[in-house]
Design brief:
Strand order of the largest sheet: 4-3-2-1-5-6-7
Largest sheet: 7 strands, antiparallel
CATH superfamily of the largest domain: PmbA/TldD superfamily
Order of helices and strands: HEEEHEHHEEEHEHHEEEHEHEEEEHEEEE
Mean pLDDT: 95
Distance between the termini: 60 Å
Low-confidence stretches: none
Shape: globular
Helix content: 10-25%
CATH topology of the largest domain: PmbA/TldD fold
Number of strands: 20
């Protein structure tokens, strides 16, 4: 397979080099994936999938009203393409790029040195199929030990992924990573009407605690059976689990050079993002070299090596997220794209915070995706808890809503750090005076 990849990549590079292009890049992505499917904890089917695809990006110089512009286009070729198919695809990309007239920005013909970094679990990289079977046996065994809930339809994927990048500036690098994905549903109650859906992803085996995950969601399914809906009102709310990964999208969006260029960013360099001091000051950094981070990578799409950088420090906007294009348009320092975003923790654990009387802990939602432009959020509550007399009482139903920008002065972050996709930060985000619509 390796020889086939290299040969195809050489053909693509040769065709691109013979074209009149300003810049081009090719990324070959090979994935070896094991897939196991379960019904009620028992393996129903297995698959082994080997995928090779080639992502081609091209840039050409155009003119609009006598001004030089830049056009770009990209596409993906599947494996086993003929030379004629590659040629046809590239010709189509050139036609598409000639229709694009972005203001010109320079892509330097520059050689780079790349950090040696991979994001791999050695066992999965060596043999994802054996690891998948081992995990499957453990899932089946754990499912049998859970008596008060049924593990319904479940999927387990383990992958080894290798990326090989090259561009017209003769830059080359390789990047390897591994991935585990576990998705399933627990059913509980007399008629199996109560459920808890889960999706866990990890890079390393030691980050995937199967026993804890399965027992936790079996408990959630049971707690949902008699969970009540809260009265409508304003509450102090702990957002956790499903809310974490997208919670700060408003600030990440407004911190981008793209938002500044399009004149909708509400964040100004050197100025505070809030004029009242919350309990935990907000600090957000981008780090492409986090072990286990979903967005860990070596370089951007132009082949420029990436580095960590700060975006917000102690409630102050310190640097815009500036890719090559918009850093030149705005004369800003280049940072590269956002990768893994790291949030500094607070001082109290979630276990301490949740002891407060009448505090609401929300874990499961229909969908929690705050609006990137406005910061508004609204979602149905699938499962949470309210603390009464030192006990956590299950709740569900109704909805939670608010605006992150209006509530940020009440922010408290927990001291425990978790990884959720590209989010590396506290396992609890606390806001006060949050609206809950219930009964």
């Amino acid at each position: 397979m390796e020889n086939n990849i290299n040969e195809t990549q050489k053909i693509i590079e040769k065709i691109l080099s013979d074209k009149d292009l300003y810049f081009w890049s090719v990324k070959t992505i090979e994935e070896n994936r094991a897939e196991n499917y379960f019904i009620f904890g028992q393996t129903e089917s297995k698959r082994q999938i080997n995928i090779v695809k080639y992502k081609i990006s091209i840039f050409i110089l155009n003119k609009l009203n006598e001004l030089q512009t830049i056009g770009d286009s990209s596409g993906i070729l599947p494996e086993n393409c003929t030379e004629e198919q590659i040629q046809n695809m590239i010709d189509k990309l050139i036609v598409s790029a000639r229709l694009v007239n972005n203001p010109f920005y320079e892509i330097k013909n520059e050689k780079f040195h790349y950090n040696k970094f991979n994001n791999c679990d050695s066992s999965i990289y060596e043999n994802p199929y054996i690891v998948c079977d081992e995990l499957s046996n453990k899932i089946s065994s754990l499912a049998k030990s859970i008596n008060n809930a049924k593990l319904s339809t479940t999927e387990l994927f383990t992958s080894r992924i290798s990326e090989h990048y090259s561009n017209s500036s003769s830059n080359r690098y390789s990047f390897d990573k591994t991935k585990i994905m576990l998705e399933g549903v627990f059913l509980a109650g007399p008629d199996d009407s109560s459920e808890s859906y889960f999706l866990d992803q990890a890079t390393f085996l030691d980050e995937l605690d199967l026993e804890q995950t399965l027992k936790k969601h079996a408990k959630y399914a049971n707690d949902s059976i008699n969970a009540a809906t809260l009265p409508t009102g304003k509450y102090k709310v702990i957002f956790s689990e499903e809310a974490l990964e997208e919670f700060f999208n408003f600030y990440l969006t407004h911190a981008s050079a793209l938002a500044v260029y399009n004149k909708f960013s509400l964040l100004k360099l050197g100025e505070p993002i809030i004029f009242k001091n919350p309990k935990t000051p907000l600090t957000i950094k981008s780090d492409p070299f986090i072990p286990g981070g979903a967005s860990s990578r070596v370089a951007d799409d132009y082949g420029i090596p990436l580095k960590p950088f700060s975006i917000i420090e102690n409630n102050k906007m310190v640097q815009y997220i500036s890719d090559l294009q918009y850093s030149q348009y705005l004369n800003l320092p280049y940072t590269g794209p956002l990768t893994n975003y790291v949030i500094n923790p607070g001082t109290r654990s979630i276990e301490e915070i949740v002891k407060e009387e009448n505090i609401v802990l929300l874990l499961r939602f229909s969908a929690f995706s705050p609006k990137e432009i406005t910061g508004d959020f609204s979602s149905e509550i699938r499962l949470g808890y309210i603390t009464k007399n030192g006990k956590q009482i299950p709740i569900k139903g109704g909805s939670v809503s608010g605006n992150i920008r209006n509530l940020i002065d009440t922010l408290e972050l927990s001291s425990n750090i978790v990884k959720k996709g590209s989010y590396i930060g506290p396992d609890a985000i606390v806001l006060d005076n949050v609206d809950i619509s219930g009964v």
